[in-house]
Prior knowledge:
The chain has about 250 residues and is α/β, with parallel strands linked by helices. It has 11 helices and 10 strands. Strands 4-5-6-7-8 form a 5-stranded parallel beta sheet. Strands 1-2-3 form a 3-stranded parallel beta sheet. It has a two-stranded antiparallel ribbon with strand order 9-10. It starts with a strand and ends in a 9-residue tail after the last helix. Bound molecules: manganese (II) ion (MN). Manganese (II) ion binds near residues 5, 7, 194 and 197. The site of manganese (II) ion has 5 residues, from loops.
Amino acid sequence: MIDFHCHIDLYPDPAALIREVGADGIYVLAVTTTPKSWSHLQQLICGHKRIKAAIGLHPELVAERFGEVEEVCSIAKETRYVGEIGLDGSPSLKDSFALQKQVFERILERCCELGGRILSVHSKRAATEVLNSLEAFPKSGKTVLHWFSGTRTELERAIKMDAWFSVGPAMLRSAKGRQLIGAMPRSRLLTESDGPFARIGSSPILPNNMVEAESDIAKIWKTTPEDVRSKIHENFRSLVTGVEDFRD
Ligand code: MN
């Protein structure tokens, strides 16, 4: 199974979860919300070849942490993965939107300098603005739009721009989410938990809940969960190809 967007260091007992994920053989992209958690995350996942860390600065935290952007840019040298980055156009974050854009574009510019990265990108209520920024930095790498919730027109534009998509149980619960997933190219789809922020009922979604995501995607694709798993693995391999990590 693949969990391509998980805040693994933010669960109550990350070390125990990392052991479970290891035992289950799940591949995890461990995204960060601030560069301050980078070294701790590195220690946590050390020795776990199926878990890779992405360096990020979450748009929700930009108002208070914009000063950390150069730290992100510096750490981006050490990893092929950058996330969680992006823009959030929620009304509560309106005041920081201009700053979010500066931070996002500075990180994209850095990714271009470094020859491109694999990006896990947040675009809640800001899909058009995110796509505008990505278009302005075409050499920033391969973009995975996580939990995409834009319009169909924005989705079509993202597809034309060669974006990938990571989707999870939270998105699969809504009719709009399922419709968007149905319109995403099957060859560019990955699964994600977005845990512990994303929840099922009162419990945070876990990497092994990707089982349910696979079976929900199977209903949309009108195929078997096994077929979905194999397709998602094939996609994952194709996305991270040439990357000297995520080895078994
Ligand atoms: Mn997230």
